[in-house]
Design goal:
304 residues; alpha+beta; Enolase-like, domain 1; 2 domains; 4-stranded antiparallel β-sheet; 11 helices; elongated
Length: 304
């Protein structure tokens, strides 16, 4: 029997792990999972975390990064989003039907929208909903997000990489013109969007899940260093910083989240030999702050 599952949690690690568990437990009925996240950046399975977001900004503003199981580009979530997932078996999946349900829900809110070739829902050529699907074995999910009242200023800062220059083999996101539903109609709220989804899906069987009553075994793995960082494709990066004695430029090769090669240069008139720093950093986890700290400690010891 089909049902609607609604998460009472806003933790993105729990919600994406819960989505995956519901997906693995799918049956031939169609189920609708509705969920919201606290401020977070959700990147695709094959993306480079360093190329997609400003990690320093995220850390300063307590914004989590989550690598999902499906592919696609990076998206920003906050409580101004409503996320939806249709879950079933592949043989009973009907993408056209899922899109019609979503479009019917939007019509009830007075939004006349169209589906683009890039798996987006558009209002006057502006994207308010991005979609993707994922299969594993005979399990199928069709999921996406609805922009209701998202913080676009935060989105822009969160999805602007801080690295100076980066060449990556990962899948890069394509940015689109976006619009909030509340900007189209100020009476549209997150609560109204959720209620409209429930009414349009036409199902009385509603289940609420939380950490207290639902087991999402992969939640801890999703927040681990190995899953978040070591899954990033191999990449080369250039960092640069200005000090009182001159510029320092660093060229780094990273694979599986580890520094495989590094060269540190400076235009300073002082004779600094950064070979000890390079030797110390080879084989270490790549982290921009750790690299600069190593260099600054070396300079302090040299000048002291």
């Amino acid at each position: 029997m089909k049902k609607i599952i609604i998460s009472k949690e806003f933790d993105p690690y729990f919600n994406i792990a819960a989505e995956n568990q519901l997906f693995l437990d799918s049956d031939e009925d169609i189920h609708l999972f509705l969920w919201q996240n606290d401020a977070s950046v959700i990147i695709g399975r094959n993306q480079n975390i360093y190329a997609e977001c400003n990690l320093k900004y995220l850390k300063e503003h307590d914004i989590k990064v989550v690598r999902r199981f499906s592919g696609g580009g990076a998206v920003y979530h906050d409580k101004g989003n409503v996320n939806f997932t249709f879950i079933t078996k592949e043989k009973t999946a009907n993408q056209a039907k899922f899109i019609e349900i979503i479009k019917a829900a939007m019509a009830k809110l007075g939004i006349d929208c169209e589906f683009s070739g890039r798996n987006d829902l558009l209002y006057k050529d502006q994207k308010f909903s991005g979609h993707a699907y994922y299969t594993d074995g005979d399990n199928y999910m069709y999921h996406g997000t609805m922009l209701v009242n998202e913080d676009f200023k935060q989105l822009e800062k969160a999805l602007s990489p801080s690295m100076l220059k980066l060449q990556s083999k990962g899948i890069k996101s394509v940015r689109s013109r976006v619009v909030n539903l509340s900007s189209i109609n100020s009476e549209i709220t997150v609560e109204k969007v959720i209620q409209t989804f429930i009414e349009t899906f036409d199902c009385k069987n509603i289940e609420y899940i939380s950490k207290a009553n639902f087991k999402a075994p992969l939640e801890q793995m999703l927040s681990s260093y190995d899953w978040l960082y070591a899954q990033s494709p191999k990449f080369d990066i250039e960092l640069e910083k200005r000090y009182s004695f001159g510029n320092v430029s660093i060229y780094i090769s990273v694979s599986d989240g580890m520094i495989q090669g590094i060269k540190i240069n400076t235009d300073s008139l002082c004779l600094y030999d950064f070979k000890p720093c390079e030797d110390k950093l080879i084989g270490k986890r790549f982290d921009e702050q750790t690299v600069w700290k190593c260099i600054e400690q070396y300079i302090a010891a040299k000048d002291g």
